[in-house]
Amino acid sequence: MEASSTSQPEFDYLFKLLLIGDSGVGKSTLLLSFTSDTFEELNPTIGVDFKVKHVNIGGKKLKLAIWDTAGQERFRTLTSSYYRGAQGIIMVYDVTRRDTFTDLSDVWAKEIDLYSTNQDCIKMLVGNKVDKESERVVSKKEGIDFAREYGCLFIECSAKTRVNVEQCFEELVLKILETPSLVAEGSSGVKKNIFKQNPPQSGAATSGCCSW
């Protein structure tokens, strides 16, 4: 009996989330703010950074593997593989820099189309740095319109003051939990990680969505 109690999984689902957007928009500070409750001015990410956060959302124990990609052009080729298998993609722009907003449609939305392997993947648009309201050049309405056009969730936040930082990730994850195919993937990920002794079964991936 005791042996079986120790093999209880530490989480119900494992989800892979990806942060994308131009360099300097605050992807790394957003991630740090969410995972460690602190704010730091960080140097640009080289290649990719990775953090894990355990959260309880929607009554489920979740393990979030959050990938923070480099925004600079010269690292772009490295990041294409990181889109693979992501259940959630967060597109970040800086409300005080118009170019970071225009690049969403010119660069980042195209990358998602090219590299995302997940048809049902949930996308979220995040306007960061609302603490610099006096320097704002991208209106909230523009963000809402973009999100509507591309079928994304939308939120504005500040990694510095932590306004809406948790809500950003929570809303994304709740939407993933409402999507049966993504829940199935998240639960099959758990099986692969935790029950390593069991050979993967073709039907295993569907077991997570029997309650839908």
From TrEMBL:
Entry superkingdom: Eukaryota
SMART domains given in the database record: ARF (SM00177), RAB (SM00175), RAN (SM00176), RAS (SM00173), RHO (SM00174)
Record protein name field: Uncharacterized protein
Entry function: Intracellular vesicle trafficking and protein transport.
Keywords: Cell membrane, GTP-binding, Lipoprotein, Membrane, Nucleotide-binding, Prenylation, Protein transport, Transport
Annotated localization: Cell membrane
Membrane topology classification: Lipid-anchor
Pfam family of the protein (one): Ras
Keyword Acyltransferase appears in the UniProt entry: no
The species this protein was found in: Gossypium raimondii (Peruvian cotton)
GO BP terms in the entry: protein transport
GO terms of molecular function: GTP binding; GTPase activity
GO cellular component, one term: plasma membrane
Family under the similarity heading: Belongs to the small GTPase superfamily. Rab family.
